[in-house]
Amino acid sequence: MTPEARQCLEGLMAQAPNELLKPLDVVRAAEPLDSPLHRYFTWDNAVAAEQYRLVQARVLLRSVYVINPGELHTQPTMGYVSLLMDRSQPGGGYRPIATVMASDALREELMYTALQELRGWLRRHQRLERLVTDVAKAANLPLPHVVEAHLVAQGHP
Predict the structure, then answer these.
(1) How far apart are alpha carbons 110 and 84 in whole angstroms?
(2) Of 110, 107, 118, which is closest to residue 87 (Cα–Cα)?
(3) Phi then psi dihedrals of residue 144, to 5 deg
(4) pLDDT digits (tens, 9 = 90+) for 65-92
(5) Which of 60, 57, 92, 104 is nearest to 79 (CA)?
(6) Contact in structure between 153 and 126 (CB atoms under 8 Å)
(7) Sign of CA dihedral 83, 86, 92, 98
């Protein structure tokens, strides 16, 4: 992001009621051709519509939950998952959770994906140590594991 775009966002935040900046306000500020934010958006409506439909498809796929009929006492789980190895392919993709869990290799890839996502979350929030601690407590995770994952996220073995 350019310094000008960052400054523009900071200006919008300063004007936002209750320090709550709404995406619509950012889009409106980006509309003028000379806006520092303009280049970060797709202004061709046909292309933008196609991109938005892909976002909607991803949301739809992530909204599917299933219950294993043989285990009715269990909680619903996601019906489809997106593995990192699939995200690196053109168009990405989702796989049925039953297929992933039935395959040792795919289950291992799902675990790798989950760990990478956790590491990413920890990296994004590393300066908010209290948040990391609070999340660990809320998730009933022993703090040493969170600290260990946090250190791994920072590149420590």
Answers:
(1) 8
(2) 110
(3) -55, -35
(4) 888 766 666 788 899 999 999 999 998 9
(5) 60
(6) yes
(7) negative
